[in-house]
Specification:
- This protein has seven helices and no strands.
- The relative contact order is 0.12.
- It is mainly alpha-helical and 201 residues long.
Amino acid sequence: MRTTDEFRAYARGRLIESRLTPNGISLTGLVLNLAAAALITQRLFVLGGLAFIVGSVMDTLDGRYSRMSGKGTMFGAFLDSTLDRIEEGVVITAVAWYFADTGHAIPAAACVLTVLGSLMVSYTRARAEALGVECKVGIATRPVRVIILSVGLVFAKGAGIFDIELLAPAIYAMAALTAITTVQRVWHVRGQLRALDIPEV
């Protein structure tokens, strides 16, 4: 009888030998996030939240599976990052549509700021790494944003759980935290470049 470690090793080996590819996992995450956006527009927040959670988990698995299996490619890494931005933007756009459709202009506008902030968090890291500076600092990383938005969706008004409304507060929190994270990363990169005696202009 196999021990737990032996079973894990066996399962890992079978998974690596399978036809499953990191790109396949990434595309599955995309489909689930598109489904989440569609469910949100129908105000099925709990189902949309669950689809978003599972899709986001797939987004984290593709990178790990890529490293574990050795099946990763440079294009796969590029595709993964690109799809992550699309998925987050599509889901938040669906939330913005819901707020606009129900006449809530302020949270709808906050959704736009959240998308902008999320893109800037990703852009500042990518640009910093292009300059040779590691830039993973900041509070509103992708996993944190996923958790906040997931809580907001599952506990949205009319979702049927505890009869509370956390979707708008979740969007406000994401808008604020992504702005703070962008500033944190700009400040971090400035400090790192100064330490390397690289002129800022």
